[in-house]
Each structure stands twice: as C-alpha cells, then as structure tokens.
User: Fold these one by one.
Assistant:
Number 1:
Amino acid sequence: MRKKTTISLILGILLSVIALYFAFRHVPFRDLTSYLKTINYLWMLPSVSVALMSFALRVYRWQIILESAHSISFWRAFHPLMIGFMINCILPGRVGEIARPAILKKNENVHFSTGLATVAAERVFDVGIMIVFLVILLSTVQIDPKLDITFGKYHFNKEALIAVGSVTFKLLILLLIGLISVSIDRIRNRVIDLVMRSPSLLFFAGPDFKGNLQKKVCVPLVHFIENFAAGLALIKYPAKMVACIGLSAVIWGLAAFSYYLMAKGCPGIHLSFNELFAVMLITCFFIALPSVPGFWGIWEAGGVFALAIFGIPAKEAAGFTLTNHVVQIFPVIIVGLISAMITSVNILQVSYEEQ
C-alpha cells in the first residue's frame, strides 16, 4: 500500500508540475507578485465564512444520508467530515474519502462499508448537481465560439467542455444505476446468491479449496455488500432524497458565492456570479485529476483556463486563482486539524490502516 501511495504521489507531482508550467508560463514572477500586492485581502473574511457555511451544510446532508443506517449528532458528523477533507488537502491519493468512514467506524461503531457507501452517495449528489449547473451555465453565459486555448497538445474550447460534461454525465448515470441496484433487495439477494455459488463453478477444484474460497472470499464479500447497501438506504426515502438534492444545490451555490466575494477584492476580475460559478465548476473538473496534496498546479491550470474563457488576462487570472486556492483550502486544513485534536484522531494511522 505504501508503494502504491508513493507511485500515486510521484505521478501527482509530475502532473502538478506540468500543470503549474502551463498555468503560469505566460506570467512573469514579478508581474504575479505585483498583482498579489494589489488585492484587497479583507474580502477573504466573508469569502472564508461563506465557504465554511457550505461545509456546515455538507455535515447536515451527511447526517440525512447516515440517518437511515445510524443517527449521529451534528458535531459527531462534523469532525469526521472536516478531518476527511483536511486529509485530502495534505495527503496524496484522496485518502480522506477512506479516512472518514474509518473514523466513523472507530468513534460510532458504524461498519466501514456502510460509511463508505454514504460517502459514495454524497459524491453522486455532488457530481450530479455540478453537471446540471455546468450545462445550464454553459448555455447561458457568453463564450466565444471561436475560443481555442492550447495546453500542450490539447485544445480546450466550448465544445470540449460540453463533451467532458456529457461523458461525465453518462458515467454518473452508470454509477447511479449500480448504487440503486445494490440497494434493491431482490437484485442484491440475487447478487449475493451468485457470489456464494461461484466456488461451485470451479469444477476442477477440490471441496477443501472451494470451502476455503467461500469462507475467506465469498462470505466477507457478502458482508461488505450488505453493509454497503445499508449505507444506501436513503434511496428508499424520496423526501430525504429531495432534501439532499436541494442541499447539494445550496452547497454549490454557496461555494460559488465564496468565489464571487473573493473576486470583489481582486482587480481585473469583473465577472458576474454565473460566470464565476462556471469558473468554479470547470476548476473542480480539473482537480478531479491526480495531483499533489492540496491540488496545487491542477487547481491553477483549471482556474487560469476557466478565466481565459471569459477574457481575463493571464496575470489577473493567475493571481486570482492562486489567492482563491489558498482561501478555499487553508481554512479547511485548520478546521480539520482542530477536529483531529478534539477527537484525538491519528491522521496518518486512520488514513492508511483501513486501506
């Protein structure tokens, strides 16, 4: 596991270095530092406050998703969520997604696979709302149809963005079908029956081998499927589903408003709320790529590209993106570290032991 983590980190560093080069290759360091001196950093305060409000709503949404399997208080959900997001910012491989259900298992005695299923459900809501908003925004904001921005051998334009959104939407549908299938009792029982019967297909193997395979592989896999399905019990409650969809829309709206507030203090970033909302969503698609902890490089490349779509010059785009990156992740790291101290969570241990 450590070898895989090291490889992931090395690949992330290489990709981040390449992304940083393409993001800042047209911005002299002196121009960037002079622009950073012109920013009104007082706008960081309301921007950070709104961003943290969005995380509070994430906690409430996670409570609703968890409620079907295990009910916990706001603060007992708040700490694992913030620790998970903090770990994503400081360790490679997005192990924060694994750490959160690990903390839930340790502190609340919730099966790891059940907690993991609730995190997966969260991501479905997030990606679904992101795609819906991106399609709406790209059809309403003004983008030059002749725009063609080059990153190495790749060409990015409006058609490319729509294509990426379309592919992501199709993948989301497949994931949603899979999650719904696991949560339906009849389908799940059929899958479990197939898993338990699978050793009998090995006609060339002896009875002892088949028995060990069923005991050591099939039975644990069945337990995982059952516990994972418990975390998806939300699907059976339409009212909770609607509440989570509504909360997801508000969460991303607040995140975009945080961008908008920070832009108020950055000279040259004269974009509407909808345009900055699109910038944020495009940046999010970039940071889904492998990168170093904290998404350094990939975040900047996505932000500079997205701002270029709306005619923002390279210097202003680089300065705003870099500043906003700090505004968005450092409060999360600080709050996550405080939560780790309050709950006495060993960050490194909980990040790797469940893998």
Note: The beta strands are 149-151, 154-156.
Number 2:
Amino acid sequence: MPAGHILGSCQIVMEYGGIRAVVSGDYKRSADPTCAPFEVVTCDLFVTEATFGLPVFKHEPADSEARRLIASIKTNPDRTHLLGVYGLGKCQRMIALVRREGYDAPIYLHGALRALCDLYLSLGCGLGDLRDASGAAQDELKGALVLCPPSAVTDRWSRRMSDPVTAFASGWMRVKGRAKQRGVELPLIVSDHADWPELLQTIEDTGAAEIWVTHGREDALVHQIGKMGRIGRALALVGFEDEGD
C-alpha cells in the first residue's frame, strides 16, 4: 500500500491466522505532487517510523514553504538561490512544489541530482525546464534557483554562484540550531516524513492495539502510545539513526 514518502514508497501488509500487521517504512501524510498519498490500513500491529518522534516537530505546509522560496527569489533578483536537497524524493518534490506555485523559470541542477530527476521524468512526473548548473555561465545563474546536495551548498562547487542565498529543505530546519550550524539563510521546513501530530493521527487511524516504533525518537513516542491506551515497543534496528531529511 502507498506510503506517501517518495515515488514508489510503500507499506507492507502481512496477514496470518486472522492477524494483520502493517510495516510502514518511511511515510508522510501531507500532500506530495510526485507520489501516491499514504493510505491507512487498519491492523492489529503497526510498525511505525519515528524520525520526527518528538512534540517539537510540526512541519509547515509544504506549499507555503515553496511560496516563501519563490518570494525570496523575487525579492533578491541579483542573488542565486542555492537550495540544498536530498537527491531522492526531496529534490523532485521541491521542484514540483515551486512549479505548482507558478515558478516556470529554468531550474538548475548539480550533476549529482540529474539522474534521479531524469528517472522521475521517465516515470511521468513533470518537472519543467531543468538545466545543468555546471555548464551555465555565472551571469545565467544570477537570480536563478539552483538545487544541489546539502554537502555542496558550502563547498568549492558553490563559489561560482552570484552572492547566493543559501537554503535547505528539511524537517530538521524546525530546529534553529541546526539551520545556524549549517549556515542556512533561508530554512524551509519541508519533510518527507510524518511529523509528531501525523504520527499520532496515523496510530489512531490504524486502530492497532500494538505499535512497534523504529528509526528515530522511539522513547518519546512509545511513552505517548502508552498514554493512548495502546502497547508500544521500541524496535531497535542496527545501523539506523538520524537520517538527513
């Protein structure tokens, strides 16, 4: 069943002996023009992620964050807007969001983002006019929107940009200290993971009596699950910690 995380993401539904278990993987409940929306599956056992499993995390509406980005581009026509995004999912979602809000100018890409954007295009996801940033003249990038991996925002590759406005799209931008640490001038709180209210709502919607929590802030969510009258269990998986959303 669709998970609403990125294009092709899914939940796994397992049934045996009259018991249904659903493993969510990564998911979100907010709208995303690049993938099928999350679908609730009622179950007895629900395995949920908890990347943003703390009450402080409440994401902003993604369309309003896209409008903030476009407004900044219009306000600073002489500055390149350099937006740090993760290559799979976030990059394509941000492009689709600004397109839906009326931004029809060419969008420039770091070379590391091109292949996955081409894949999305081949699968029918319209992203508009995409160009390679490395082959563009410096004057061409003046006032333009350039997307790159987060690590490229401050490395040598970005120095050719015209007085760039540094931006980063992530649920972690809710934490001001993280934005300051990365030197982000325009933090955009756009995440491909469920925030705290969405996590709780999904648990309610599934009707599951038992919830296994993994991939994130297990302790806080397990505690809250107990207050909701359900059985919560932290399911520790080796190798999983914060992911850079």
Note: The CA atoms of residues 80 and 220 lie 40 Å apart.
Number 3:
Amino acid sequence: MRILVIEDEQRIADFLDRGLASAGYAVDVVGTGREALAAVHTTDYDLLILDLMLPDMDGMEVLAKVRGRKVSPPVLILSARGALDDRVKGLESGADDYLVKPFAFVELLARVRALLRRGQAVPEKLQVGDLTLDCIRRKVSRAGEPIDLAPKEFGILEYLMRNKGRPLSRTMIVEHVWDMDYDGLTNIVDVYIRHLRTKIDERFPRKLIQTVRGIGYMIDAPDATTQPAGK
C-alpha cells in the first residue's frame, strides 16, 4: 500500500513517515499543494493524508482538485483546525475522514486501515492456492500454518498477491513497497524474494513465487504437475 503524506511541518511529516513505514506502508511526503498534485498525477496512491494549512494553497483546494480526477484515492484530513464547522466543511468537501492535531498515532493508523478497508483499496483477505494473507490483521498462513513476515516481506507478498498471475518488474516492486526509485543496481528485491521463498515455498511441493525471465516475479498457483520457472 502506498500513502502520500501532504504536510509542510517537518516534525510531523517525519513522524508520519517513520510510523507508517514501520507499519509496512510505502510513504511519499510532500510539503506543498503543487507537489501533492504533481505526485497524484504521476503515482497511483491508495490513500492521501492531507494537512489543510499548506504554504502555497489551502488544503481544501488540493482536495477539490484531487476529487476532480476520474479516479481519486481516499483522503484523510489531518489538521489543527478542530472547530466543528471546519470538520463538517472538510467532510462535505469530499474528505473521507478528519483527524484533529494533536493526535495519537495509534488512532491515525486505525483510521488509515479503516479507510483502506472501506474504500476496498484492499480486500479483507487475499488467497493464492493454499496461501492466505489477511490484509487487515496483517497475518499470513499457508495450509493453515502461520508464517511470520517482516513488514517489507509482507508488503512485497501483498503486492504480488494483489496482482496474482501478473508479472511484476523489480522496478514496480521497489517503487510500490519502498520509498525510493529503482536505480537498476540494487538487488534488494532479489534478496527479499529469497527470504519469502524460504518462508512461503521451501516446505511445500507447490512453488507459488515464480521468476519471470527478463521481467521480475509473479505469484500464482500452478497445477500440481507443473514445475514453476525459476525454482
């Protein structure tokens, strides 16, 4: 899941960046409305967290422009404007939720997950063969056996399972799961795929994580008689 944080106060922006990343989300942070609109134009986000008091334009203007797009992600307003009129205006202008500063991160995280669930950005559960991933409780099991994954491992597996049967390049995986651009040199995806294969596939005859030569990786449940490539 990829989240755009639109916040010009550096301390809060850094706090959100670290907290959401530790919860397993890929996070982009911008400090102006113009940067936000440019980011939304070039990247498909699963959620926006929007401050209203930006240095170059009012957050309500950003919200209106985002809502003017054919497809727009859920928006959580995060603002020091806590008056009832402000909250009502924000929700009536198209925000999906409104949280007043100061806030507890655990509450923000709960609201983020609720918005993703409500907007069906993620289904409650994903399944490939006998592998199950619970998007809300962030639990993974195969053939009923629980599997412990680190946050980035979970993020990669979720992205693969959401695109079952579709080859994903290393570039796509890095840009979705990490807050960085793929430079063509890093082997970080290959390292994490090896970790996932050890946990997901090693003890089972059917190998779900497959190498797609010249492209990257995908996950699928082949017939029991079919040996997947790259394993």
Note: The longest strand covers residues 2-6.
Number 4:
Amino acid sequence: MAIVSNTVGYLDESSPLEAFFAFDDSSNMRRPVVLIFHAWAGRDEFVEEQAKQIAALGYVGFAVDMYGKGQVGQSPEENARLMHPFMADRDLLFKRAAAALAAAKLLPWVDDKKVAAIGFCFGGLCVLDLARKGAAVNAVVSFHGLLTAPEHWVAQPITASVLVLHGHDDPLVPVEHVQGFQQEMRAADADWQFVSYGKTMHSFTNPNANDPVFGTVYNAATARRSWLAMQSFLAENFV
C-alpha cells in the first residue's frame, strides 16, 4: 500500500476552492470516494489526516474546502466569521457542498456511482444538508454535527443512508435539536441511525479539543468507536 496525496483546485462559480485528496496508488481500479467536510476552522490538517485514513480503507478521501482557497481560521472568532455566511444562508451552503461533490466525482480514480460524505461539527451539518436536498450520494455520516434543518426548505424523502454519531453531553446540540432531527428523519422515510455516546461532549474526534467550558473535549474511546461505526456503515453502503 502506498498512500499518495495532493491538492486539486475547483470552482463554485467564481469562487476558487482547493480540496486535498488521498488514495492508494497500488491499484489502478476505480473506487468509492468519501468527501470529508471540515469543522468551523476550515480545511485544516485534521481533515487532511482523515482523508489519508479514508484512503487506507481502500477509498479516495476528498477533504472539501467550504471557505475558499487558503482560508483557515486561527481563532474561535475567526472560525465563527468564516462559518457565519453558510449558517445564515443554507442555500449557499448546499451550493458550495454540491460544487465539491461534482469535483470529487471527476477524479480519475473515482467510481462516481459509489459516493459518501462524512463531516465533523459544521461539516456534519453540510453532509446532512446534502442528504436533505437529495444529492447523489449513497450515504452520509455526521460526527458531532449540528442537526437543525433549514426552516424554509420543503421536506422531501431522503434517499441517502444517514448515520449520526453524537455525544450525549454535547452542549452545542440540545436535546430539542436531537428530537427534532429524529422526527425529521421519520417524516422523510429515511434509512437512518443515531448513535449517542455517553460521557461525550462536542468535538470528541479532535485530539486538540480541550475546552470543557465551551463544550469541546476530545474523547479517545468515542473517537475510536465512532470511526469503527463509520467503517461498517460505509462498507454496507458501498456493496
């Protein structure tokens, strides 16, 4: 196995974006692609590492750029500023995510009939919105993601399989949001799973998360368990 990685430029209309991708070049066969949507800081080293780990599973890992080439926040305030336009305009969010989906499918190593998307925090919301809008993805996985649906979107059946991996003690996602999301999935007749991990807060996959006052705390056991849950879920949906 030889994991290689690089970046690739793409556009959302006139907005220049740059994804990071990784794959195992010991095979010349086309394979499934997994888009990886970043948390509120932007396309950083964390999601690049996830792309490499996805490649080690035999897929193409495609770390999406939602903010624009070179834009990565360096503080909570800057992260919030970068994320705000997409939280305020979910149509913009979906359009930017769909541009990444189109770009990923063009990579020559990709089987464009086998596509999944995973996301962390803000990225979890991005992948759920892909499913809500009926994007051509087989499956989506949200890690400690935000859950609320846009109020102005007309609900429709969800065809992608959905897995939500959630920290039970996540203060950024109140129980009302969990209940609303589960009701939304039932109404959409979705194939959905919701795993709630005890003694787990927000950002549980990120080793650098260590702010219990804000509610972001790394949990090694939950990070491991959730990654294994994702692997099983992807394997099932890429058959």
Note: The CA atoms of residues 203 and 216 lie 5 Å apart.
